[in-house]
Structures are given as structure tokens and as C-alpha cells.
Amino acid sequence: MAERYTSFEPGGRRWLWQRLTAAFLVVVLAFHFFLLHFVNHADEVTFALSQARMEQLTYFSLMILFLVTATFHGVNGVYNALVNQGLTGTRKTAVKAILGLASVLLIVQGVRTALAWAGGVPI
Amino acid sequence: MSQSYNRGLIEDFSRWREFSAGMWAWIFHKFTGWVLVGYLFTHIAVLSTALSGAAAYTNTIQALESLLVVRILEVGLLAVAVFHILNGLRLLFVDLGVGLEAQDKSFYASLILTGVIVVASVPTFLSGVSI
């Protein structure tokens, strides 16, 4: 019988979510890089220019979705890589809790920053 | 028909000369993934200077962008991100059963395309910086 050589547990949904977020991130990460390095140059960034973008609901909501999916994809990827390396038992539970907490903190900090630019939710 | 696949031996990195294209793709995808998730946390930390006011944010970004080492690191970040995107697309297609028989060729194509995009982007990334 073949040994399994995937990072994902049998029957789990994390594989599916990793792939779905990847498909979204391919497009949005390319857009993000292109907008902030080729359309607008990084050395020309000012608070006012970031504010002007974030005050548009479409851009604001896209960036929040980008933050959440990138955090999930990154942290889930790290978790799967560690499980793949043989992480089990209490250490696995502890790593899951730490990565979950780090994700929440990152998303909260990112949303706070976006709200600082937009001056509140731009509805 | 299934065959025995001893991952323990394959992941013995001292045997790197024996690695196939697929193994290198796996290593590069993991490495670029670790770099990108590390950068994500750093990126949000730097952008969080916006919470200290407009001047703090603008001054921080412009001071960082005036440094040559930051621009070089940004080119490195682009290389890492482009490879992760292209190899990720390769993985998505392989998952869907498309191109499995050419997975080694699509890995080499990902590497070459990453190189071309990064080299072509260097002038943009280094514009306006003083040495």
C-alpha cells in the first residue's frame, strides 16, 4: 500500500480551503503587487494616497478579504507543513492554538490599520 | 497500482543530489511559503505605523524605501511571491488532473518565468533610490 505523502489529513477540509484561498490569492496578490509597485511606486506612498484608496468601499472590502484569506492560507500552510514533519499530540494542539491566536491578532491589527486610513468603514 | 514511497528517505536532505524536479518544487514551495507568511506579519507591523498618525506612516515608508537594501529585499520578495504563485497554479492544475505527466516541465517553466519577470522588474523596483 502506498504511504501517504500529502501534508493534509485524510477526509479533512483544510486541503480544499487551502486550494480555494490559493485561487483567490493568485489574482489578488498579483493585483496588489502590480498596483503598489508598477502603477503607484512604493517610494511615492503617503498616508493621503493610502487613505484615498481605502476610502473606497470596493478597495477597502477587497483588502480586508485579502488580509483574511492571506492569513488563513499562510497560517494553514505553516500548520500543514508542521503536521507533515510529524507534529502530533499536545504539541500539535499547542501549535494550533498559537497559530490561531497569531492569526486573530494579525487580522485585528490589519483591520485597525485599514480603519485608520479609511476613517471608519467607508459605507 | 500503488507503489511503496518512503518519504523518510526522500526527505533526507543530505541526499539532495538525488532529488527529482517534483522534490525541488516541494522544497521551493515550502521555503517561499515560510518567507511569505513571515513577510505578511512584518508587512502589517510596518503598515500599523498609520495608527500613530499620517506623518509617522509617511515618514516610515519613505525612510524604508530610501534604503537600497530594502529595494533589494523587495526584489527578493517579488521573486519569492512570483514563484509561489506560478508553482501554486501548477499545483492547482495537477490537483485537477491536468498536466501531471508534464509536472517536471511545468516546474522548470515556473522557474524560468519567475526569473524573467524578476529581471524585467528590477529597474522599476530600484528606480529613484540612491546608493
Automatic annotation (TrEMBL), chain A:
Residue ranges crossing the lipid bilayer per the database entry: 20-39, 59-82, 94-118
One MF annotation (Gene Ontology) recorded for this entry: metal ion binding
InterPro entries linked to this entry: SQR/QFR_C/D, SuccDH_FuR_B_TM-su
Species: Haloferax gibbonsii (strain ATCC 33959 / DSM 4427 / JCM 8863 / NBRC 102184 / NCIMB 2188 / Ma 2.38)
Name of the protein: Succinate dehydrogenase subunit D
Major subcellular site: membrane
GO cellular component: membrane
Keywords, comma-separated and alphabetical: Heme, Iron, Membrane, Metal-binding, Transmembrane, Transmembrane helix
UniProt KW rRNA processing keyword: no
Protein localization: Membrane
Superkingdom, taxonomy of origin: Archaea
TrEMBL record, chain B:
GO biological process: tricarboxylic acid cycle
Keyword Cytoplasm applies: no
Origin species: Haloferax marisrubri
Keyword tRNA processing applies: no
Family matches, as Gene3D superfamilies: Fumarate reductase/succinate dehydrogenase, transmembrane subunit
Name used for this protein in its record: Succinate dehydrogenase, cytochrome b556 subunit
GO MF annotations in UniProt: electron transfer activity; metal ion binding
Residues passing through the membrane, by range: 31-56, 68-86, 106-126
Entry's localization field: Membrane
Main location: membrane
